[in-house]
Amino acid sequence: MLDAKRLFPVEGAARAVAVKLYAVVKDLPIISPHGHTDPRWFAENAAFPNPAALLIQPDHYIFRMLYSQGVSLESLGIPQVDGKEQADPREVWRIFAKHYYLFRGTPTRLWLDYTFENQFGLTERLSPENADAYYDLIAQKLGTPEFRPRALFEKFNIEVLATTDSPLDTLEYHQEIRDSGWKGRVVPTFRPDAVIDAEYAGFLDNIAKLGAMSGEDVGSYRGYLNALRNRRAFFKKLGATATDHGHLTARTADLDAGAAEALYQRILSGSSTAAEQELFQAQMLTEMAGMSVEDGLTMQLHPGSVRNHNLKVYEKFGRDKGADMPSPTEYVRNLRPLLNKYGNDSRLTFILFTLDETVFSRELAPLAGHYPALKLGPPWWFHDSPEGMMRFRETATETAGFYNTVGFNDDTRAFLSIPSRHDVARRIDCAFLGRLVAEHRLDEAEAFEVVKDLTVGLVKKAYKL
Q1: What does the domain layout of the chain look like in residue ranges?
Q2: With 70 as the cut, is the pLDDT of residue 149 above it?
Q3: Which of 63, 162, 251, 399 has the fewest CB atoms within 10 Å around its CB?
């Protein structure tokens, strides 16, 4: 199924350089600094239950496409809020195989074909006719020691993998991993949305839990900030090197102490307006940047996603079920309060992501090409694709260069897709660099340096790994 020169330029000179560059980076270790895999997998190291639970049900790229074509989430066994009995996994797999043609031309198809061929030796395209044979072979392999989570982690040559965790998480599975003596490095990431976004389910209860877990009085703004510092320190003790923030906008604010306290009290009252809630999130981004200056945690901002757009799906299946949608995002004016305060501070590393590709050349690359604290994250989510990656390199490099970017992250819940996603990113970087060399815009020796930096060096530096 897989051509060895896939995704490389068609033109001969650029393709030849890309092939040579890829040979240098294809086997380098995977650095996965931002993702959503479950630390419990690596703590308990239990066998994955079945092919559907491993490959379909955690991957919103797969089930959102099927849903768009009329396949119900119930039939795919997607967990429901009320905990109703799940679908038969073999039937889920048959539905998936019947609709595999829907993924033609998508990055999901690239990732899945790579996984089937490289992890399971399956070289015939998945179809309704071979669905059961696929299922049986994958299920058989999942029962072997070689396909336990830790063994796969090592097989994939993952050097470090970061999860994304609630500020209220006890991180017990991260502690179990550390206590087990296993050498695999799995670290948490501090994601405080549950105690910053007043629209988050159970927000006020979450604030109370934050106070209880930290031993701080969250009835005051000062106590609330100290509680967040306490939890950040706990995460850092268990290996965290970064925070992550999933706000709708990139708006930031820098209120004086009195105004911030008054705003916080309005938020705590439970009767705050939408405008006040947005202002509070804006203020908290600046506070989080200040805390990153203090404790050294790299800060990531992922704005521009209208979460849970499909209300019926949200009510029945909960968050993160493929119904989050991109929205236009403005950065230059919105980030100015934060950047005026911390953008020139070399102690801060602030990584910006976007779902709005129109801002790469107009806003993000110029910002990152100026402020020492700013770096550009890779194409994310809907743009984690060959075309999205190439557009990113073409629009961002001319202003920000390579060294104001941070390499690649896979941002996935689908564990087996990690090596395939990194392989796509490496191939696209090699293709882009090959073209620059062929056009005499970059020396070949420089291209070999850059491609290693894009694969490993920049991500390690940005995330302090």
Answers
A1: 12-48+146-462, 49-145
A2: yes
A3: 399
